[in-house]
Design goal:
Layout: H1 2-17, E1 31-32, E2 34-37, H2 39-42, E3 48-53, E4 59-63, E5 66-70, E6 75-78, E7 86-91, E8 97-101, E9 104-110, E10 116-120, H3 128-132, E11 138-142, E12 145-149, E13 154-158, E14 161-165, E15 172-178, E16 181-186, E17 190-195, E18 198-201, E19 213-218, E20 223-228, E21 233-237, E22 242-244, H4 250-256, E23 258-264, E24 268-273, E25 278-282, E26 287-291, E27 302-307, E28 313-317, E29 320-324, E30 330-334, E31 343-349, E32 352-357, E33 361-365, E34 378-379, E35 387-393, E36 396-401, E37 404-409, E38 412-417, E39 424-427, E40 433-438, E41 441-448, E42 450-456, E43 466-469, E44 474-478, E45 483-488, E46 495-500, E47 511-517, E48 520-525, E49 528-533, E50 538-541, H5 543-549, E51 557-562, E52 565-570, E53 573-579, E54 585-588, E55 606-610, E56 613-618, E57 621-626, E58 639-645, E59 651-653, E60 658-659, E61 666-671, E62 681-687, E63 701-704, E64 710-719, E65 729-735, H6 743-839, H7 851-865, H8 869-881, H9 885-892, H10 898-908, H11 913-920, H12 924-938, H13 946-952
Parallel strand pairs: 60-65
Antiparallel strand pairs: 1-30, 2-29, 3-4, 4-5, 5-6, 7-8, 8-9, 9-10, 11-12, 12-13, 13-14, 15-16, 16-17, 17-18, 19-20, 20-21, 21-22, 23-24, 24-25, 25-26, 27-28, 28-29, 30-57, 31-32, 32-33, 33-34, 35-36, 36-37, 37-38, 39-40, 40-41, 41-42, 43-44, 44-45, 45-46, 47-48, 48-49, 49-50, 51-52, 52-53, ...
Helix pairs in contact: 6-7, 6-8, 6-11, 10-13, 11-12
Length: 953
Amino acid sequence: MIKQYISLLLIILSLFAGNYSFGQSIPRVGTPFVEQYNKTEYKAGNQNWGLAVSDAGIIYSANTEGLLSYDGQEWQLHRMKNNAGLRSVNIDPSGRIFVGGAGEFGYWTRSDYGKMTYTSLTGLVKDKQALKNDEIWRIILDGQKVYFHTFSKSYLYHNNQIQTVTADGEPFLFGFNVNGKIFFEQIPSGLHEFKQNGLVQIKDKHKIMDVNILTMLSFTSTEVLIGTDKNGIFKMRSDGSIEPWPNEAQDLLKKYQINNGVKLFGNQYAFGTIQNGIIILNQNGEIVQHINKNNGLQNNTVLSLATDKQSNLWVGLDNGIDRIDINSPLYYYSDLTGNIGTVYSSIIFNEKIYLGTNQGLFVSDWQGVNKYKSLSFKIVPNSEGQVWKLENISGQLVCGHNNGTFIVEGSGLRKISSVTGAWNFSSILNSNYWLQANYTGIGLMQAGNGITSLKQFSFKKDPIRNIMQIGPRDFWLSNNQNIFSFKLSQDYQNATEFKIENNGLPKDTKLHGIYNLSNNVVFASDSGFYLFDNILKVFKPYEELNVQLSTFKNANKVIPINANAYWFIKKSHIAKIQFLSDGKLKIDSSSWNSLKGRMMNDYEQVLNVDERLSLIGLDNGFVLYFNQYPVQQNLPKPIITSIWNTTDEPISLYENLEIPNNKNNIRFSFASPWYSSAPLKYQFYLEGYSENWSNWEELAFKDFTNLPFGNYVFQVRSITPNGTQSEITSVNFKILPPWYLSWPAIICYIILIFLIVYFGKKWYENRLMAHQRKLKKKLLEEQEERMAREAAANEKKLISLKNIQLEQELESKNRELANAAMNIVYKNEMLNNLHHELTNLNDSNGNKLSNDQIRKVSKLIDDAHNDDRDWDLFEKSFNEAHENFFKKLKAEYPELVPNDLKLCAYLRLNMSSKEIASLLNISTRGVEIRRYRLRKKLNLPTTKNLTEFLLEV
């Protein structure tokens, strides 16, 4: 009973899933986005023989020029040591990247910061000559064992040893590891399982003898799909029984030759072919997708396949690498030939899909998204020209065309109105009437037994683009310049009001449309959204909405999804906006970034097929948006792809992140191996330097220049367009102090400071002692100087006193000399008077004395005159007073005679001529003559005073 209940529940759940089982299966309509990477972009060879994806999400390709790697930001080529081309690549759980090519195999390892190191294993091979002729076409992982498979043997690498696996002389084709078992195809013996170092035949190997097995994929836990090159796909059970696997692509696969395969999510399988791209099948054998050069691939020859962490499909081609976003919510129909043109309107009607384009009306069968059938659009006859609008009116498809209004009937059109340019249609509530907006105003249509165009209202012939009913017979109308209030009569046949209502709108603003947002009629313009105040009859900005919409306040189109969700479109930029119960808005404006610029501005078109599917018109077709990702994956945290020192020439840093102070310019490159048509954005923060996290930006590197010394932590995280954030990746590094602040320098500084202090102290003490000695010496010198000064002063005083004494003595001597001289003068005068009186003297008798007596007396007087004793005494005293005056004169003027010396002495004493004459016992005239003669002997010029000269001697 329980089993029956569970079975019933599963049936109900499968029915509830309905046509859209997206989340487990790939859509079968449209084509996933294909990102092409050509050889000019990845800068390596054309062919990519093998693909592998690391646990971090990095893509590796076995290229003809070496190992290619791609982290979502940058391709890098890692050449082999002998420049060998590669044929295979695989990655073990430890992260070793095993590679193989012509005569070479080994593994690469990747460090934390992007350094790739290669280790060759060919040195372990004993028969190196045979290895030179081998090419490693497959690398098979089996736990700790690795098989490097060639067409002649497999080199088994285990415990750092190489053993060879051969097939008793038969060549191999390929080997596989499926459901935990190792299989090899021997030629011609067929498929074998490798057990306990031996090859065991498969039970039904004869059924697939000589078919060339190219891929083996797990079908169930006990069943395996076998893909052959020209014989299609077989299914093998655990007991070894084999039978063809019925599938819709069997003939295609036989024709175009399977070359490889990979299992996808949801039990779906991708098979790469030699001639026609990739065919994807589900477990029921139904074709899900066929992707080739016509709808996205660069090349139809598929050399390798792999899936990444997002379940995207990577394709190694004969010329390039492609990524197919099978896990994307966007699937495309692209008009590669340009026949359809730009889509302005679309509709699904009676199991057909119609596209209204600038080329006309196109139609194709529509069987939903869970049935594979390539869309094939054909133009509806006589529909050439601009189609503006497709509308289902009362079960009939109406086409608004540049040339009028048409009913789509069968495979043709029937015109119901010749009024040109039917832009829009709007039903009148509670009636069977419709309004039509067209080039020249408003038309009236009626639905009943068919659609009929009744009339064109005869008001002002302004073009009308938008219609919004606000009452039983009241409407808003608009074009790009004006808003009109419009009212119909009771029978709807006449217009009773057609009036411009622009009060409150900015001058020259461009109007985009009239929309009902959560029961509010709003008017979209390039100045933002407006509401109409029915009391004041004026338009007012809808500030509450405009503020929350931010840049989308200038949206040129609003398309309802449901009661609370809308598409807002601004110049081909789409946002999905939900009106929440608390009045806030939830805005997703990034998930459709890949569609930017691919729509016709102002004529963007979105058809909501149902809640989970929307059709978005493009300028070369359309895209289907599935409102649900099939397989959700956590966004991996970014990896640091490289660290560069950019101070001089860029130098990679791998291990030692202690960076010299003079090399303090650092670049961090990072990437999140997350692959989609909309790029990721990154945000970083440098702990120890930055104040806040940076703004989100697509740039995947950051430069830091002139970092001060210290410890830093670089942090980076990423975010997807729909707002999913990754975890944070951190890198610790250190900028070393400058050499003068390093520990050795600091130790030297300490020693130097100690030495400076020590020797400084010594120097100070010595200087202090020297200063004290110097001070003492100075004091002594000052004391001696003071004493010398005092002695000099005393001596000077003494000399002065002596001079005074000498002067006094000299004056005294001069007085004495003067007195002596005067005495001599007086004596001479007295003798002269005596001589004179002698002549007049009479004897006692009164008689004159006799001449003899007078002569005797005169002789005595003359002898007294000539007595030199007075002079000798005078000369001696004069020399004492005047420092050998006579000796100096005699020495300088030897021609001087004693009488001359006497004259000089008397003149020095400043005696008058009369006094001198008395002393010399000559007349005054005689004195003058002697003075004259003396001047001549002294050679005195006439201008020189004789007395002054003698005083200077």
